[in-house]
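hey all, quick one before standup. I had two proteins in the batch that finished overnight and I want to keep them in one place so we stop losing track of which output belongs to which input. First protein below, input sequence then structure tokens straight from the run.
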Amino acid sequence: EILSCDWSSDVCSSDLIWYNVTMNLPKDSAILLGFLNLKLRDEYSSLRALCEDLDADREGIEAQMLAFGYVYSEQANAFVCV
């Protein structure tokens, strides 16, 4: 069988298997803090956008960061020390 391929790449769409993968966030609070602030600085305009895109639990993230001594600041678009 000859399949229609996008010849701009080396892979035919029929060869691809798509998965709905939830982003595995770092478990360690210090590493998570750095990860989140990097993503917020470079890729996302808000924590809401980050959580929606990564299918992440915003309340869980905020609770973990609060226990670590940080809260999300919309003005800074970053987690900041309380």
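OK second protein, same deal, sequence then tokens:
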Amino acid sequence: MTEKIQFVQPKYQQIALELAKRISDGRYAEGEKLHARSTIATNFHVSPETARKAIIVLGDIGVVTVKHGSGFFCGVFSEGKGVYRAIPRRRID
């Protein structure tokens, strides 16, 4: 008898992948504001902390940037436009 081993990604990685797909599919345009963390959490039926981890992953790979006080935006922008990378690279356990 052979057993199948199934590997499941953590929920925050699944959410990050889904959001990255939506961005690459053009559902979000470059520079477009993403939903708030609480809205992402509600839409994916997860805690705000899980949504935060997903956003950190997207920031780490350069898919989103943060403008303090304004939110999360698709794409990487120059500081001249007033948007800068504000999500630090860190390991998520």
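Flagging for whoever picks this up: The chain is about 40% helix and 10% strand. The first helix runs from residue 11 to 24.
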